Amino acid sequence: MTSEEVRSKYLEFFKERGHVVIPSSALLPKDDPTTLLTGSGMQPLVPYLMGREHEKGKRLVDSQKCFRAEDIEEVGDNRHTTFFEMLGNWSLGDYFKKEQLPWFFEFLTDIVGIDPKKLYVTVFAGDEETSIPRDDESVEIWKKLFSGKGIEAEAVELLNNTDASEKGMQNGRIFYYDANKNWWSRKGTPNAMPAGEIGGPDSEVFYEFADVKHDESFGKNCHPNCDCGRFLEIGNSVFMEYLKNEDGTFSPLPQKNVDFGGGLERITAASIDKNDVFATDLFAPIMNKVEELKPGLNDSVKRVFADHLRGATFLIADGVVPSNKEEGYILRRILRRVIAYQIAHDVHPDLFIEVIPLISNKFKEIYPEVGNSSEIVAVMETEKQKFKAALNKGLNELSKYDKLTAAHAFRLYESYGLPFELTKEFAPKGAADDLNKKDFEKELEKHREVSRAGAGRKFGGHGLILDTGELKAGNEEELRKVTRLHTATHLMQAAIKEVLGGAVRQRGSDITVERTRFDFAFPRKVTREELDQIEVRVNEIVEKNLPFRMVEMPLDEAKKSGALYVEGANYPQTVKVYYSGETLENAFSKEICGGPHVTSTGEVGKFKIGKEEAVSGGVRRVRGNIE
Questions:
Q1: Are 119 and 205 in contact (CB under 8 A)?
Q2: What are the backbone angles phi and psi of residue 331, rounded to the nearest 5°?
Q3: Mean pLDDT, the chain, as a whole number?
Q4: pLDDT average, residue stretch 382-388
Q5: How remote is the C-alpha of 350 from its chain's centroid?
Q6: pLDDT of 72-104, one tens digit each?
Q7: pTM of the model
Q8: What pairing do the DSSP bridges indicate for beta strands 516-521 and 548-554?
Q9: Where do the domains of the chain lie?
Q10: For 111, which DSSP code?
Q11: Domain 3-275 maps to which CATH number in 3.40.190.10, 3.30.1360.170, 3.40.50.2000, 3.30.930.10?
């Protein structure tokens, strides 16, 4: 099957079984400060898994965009990608194991057409320390499903990779593994999970590529979780039913949930019996174009180009711009790796122009945000121009080192913008053998501390730099004007997110006694109609004369409340959150800030948005003032 067929048939299959198709959330998480990017299909649905009622009901299905930065260094093999699509179906307190496992098995075997003899499954072996029982129920369900296809399925206890590689598969088809393999939460095993996190046992399905021979460098014997390439995980049914308590124990959630995730790339690869996701229609056209632009590149390099350009396209389309902070740094990191490879391997200079439209055309029907390939290319080309000259100098400087220290790596980063990963990768042979990321990060933190000490005039911890010249504390009129504009900026940012979407991220602000200026990540020009909507919304809140209040709380709690904050800023453990409204929960705006602010929104006065312009690729600037 093509990827389009797998995706559409999956959505239709579960739609026929009472599920409502919901759209993918953005890669920039909305109201989730625990992570920079959406890294799993379940992430946008955590509140509903914990009991909140979803407006679309208890049965949902989707294809969710995901990005996992931790896999960047793994890209180059036949299975790891940074960006991927997770097919997901959800039961929010409705059906459970006896419906979920048969449905997924039916989808794979009867709809996709996969030979059931090539499928193997794993289940949770239990956890004595937390008294969470082993999942014998799923084992019995799987036995019946395989039996229905004429396959005898024996259950074998393997527990972990070391045990499994010693024992081998023992003619089994169902395998018990411990919590390191068959427990799912966003924060790892039951012991690793923080209080308040949810999780549960899972059952994974693996596809066997029978023509791949086991590589004993990965262990004596092969097994489903072996990394030799013979087996590929293609789906995981998580039975999300536990909440971790403050004392380390676990309690049942108010409802038993099903949280299924199946990689579109991997199911598509299984459907064509190719043990290489880059051989699917999702990547093959990109790989072929790269080969056309530079014949003879090895597959590992072509995979880096294909994955990183696809991932960068989706990040930029969702409002991320290259920077040295947070999600902007992740984008910069993968783009600069592409640019470094492009220069090092002398790949045609039109790489972006040739490849990005292929990606855009492939995905724009289901993800319209990637449709404007020219704007995406513009962001990439701008980053390339910034990095290219410095990169050549940096690579030349790097070639002079016989032995690299963390201090050297930081100097290359600070002076030439050479990311740590590229320093490690392109260093002379043996020069970077002792170089590690933790030491580099210590050097980076030392630099940040110095920078914070001399950061200049910051306004109350908000990160809004005041360009007010000789503004003196005794000049009450000027101070009051700035206070009103400062509060108006809170309202404007909330309105911008409301009109343009929650993925908008602040990129800088500046307030004087005359106006406020606000920079934010957004991939296109903001129309006058949209600016008018933002202006009207701010003035509606002003006219309502809502109370503007402050509450102090721990930093983590403030972030979890959805309060906006300046990414990369150094906040204390206890912060002030200013909000407009009767309560923090129903506030129109809420931000971690240091003040000063008005006491009610009516004091702001009539707000007017003036000029809107581009600051750089993917960053827009608006100016506003008050009457």
A1: yes
A2: -65, -45
A3: 87
A4: 87
A5: 28
A6: 878 888 888 999 999 999 999 999 999 999 999
A7: 0.69
A8: unpaired
A9: 3-275, 283-386, 399-454, 465-626
A10: I
A11: 3.30.930.10
